[in-house]
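Morning!

As promised:
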Amino acid sequence: MDEAELLRRTARGDESAFGEIYARHSPAVYRYALRMSGSREMAEEVVQDVFMQVVKGCRGFDPAIGPLASYLYGLARNRMARLWPDQSETPIEEFDLASDEPDPLEGLSREQQVESVRVAVSSLPLAYREVVVLCGLEEMSYAAAAEALGVETGTVRSRLHRARKMLLERLKRNGVRV
Amino acid sequence: MNGDERMKTLETALRRLADETAAAQPPARIETALSAAVRRRRMARYPWWTAAAAALAMAGFWAATRQMGPAVGLEQAAAPAAVRAQLAGPAEAPAEAMDQPAEALPVAKPAVVRSKASSGRGELSGELSPLTPWYFSGGLPQPARGQIVFIRVNPQTALRFGVVSEGQVPAQLLIGDDGLTRAIRFVRE
């Protein structure tokens, strides 16, 4: 059964149709929100808000424009932007890492590396954080991420490139062994 | 260490971070709460008055069934003869019969003996459509069993049988066990 039909049934109160949509998409939406926010509470709130729209039938969803997954990512993004209204306004820093500088993650244990990167990802401006989360963590293709974010594929590529540089810079600035 | 190596290390660290949260799932209570919202939405589509109307309809049907009572045994010796006598003439010329005044269409009193169980009078009111046209029922086999149903017919329907009235007219229908109307008798209140 296609997702538009599942949405229609959900809006009519069909619990099994809702269960199918939820099983398909809630883990990805939750992971996205968790990786974007670093907070389980916030991720749960985002999931609840996004799927409440599903309960209501997602009237704005048009299968001709894109898949439901992209639409749900869009809802999650909007919710995150409302939760952190200042994030999108964070100025983008200009920096350059000298090629002879050491790797800021060098010598860290696996756990230390993961925690350092998590903190650094959380500190990225929203536009850069989401491409890191979608492409770097969710392993989405550039095209799929572009569809989810509503931007061109080239924009995703360039943002990701800059986001990686920013991550290295922040890791160094945060005192990770340089 | 050059830039490419640092990027590789970063990619590795990102993959490890991804692995840490790859199995993350929203807690079950969220799905429970959302499923409850779906249920509430389904209930909201059918407001309380819909359920109340359905209950009323059921009660009405039950009451009507009680008023009709159990099937009435007809006394075979009397009823068929009376019904035949009532139906024989008009069945041959229905068109003309419809145009006759009231006195041209005498309604014979059906000689039907009712059981005590159905002697209590009750009435059904409403439209009579579909009602087997009386002039078409002349060739029907005589019913072995049937029911007498009390009804009220509107003035237009009563006029078709030659009964002129400004209001609804109480009547009794003789309905055979095949469900077809065999006779109608208007009752003076």
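Chain B has six helices and five strands.

Hope this helps with the figure draft.
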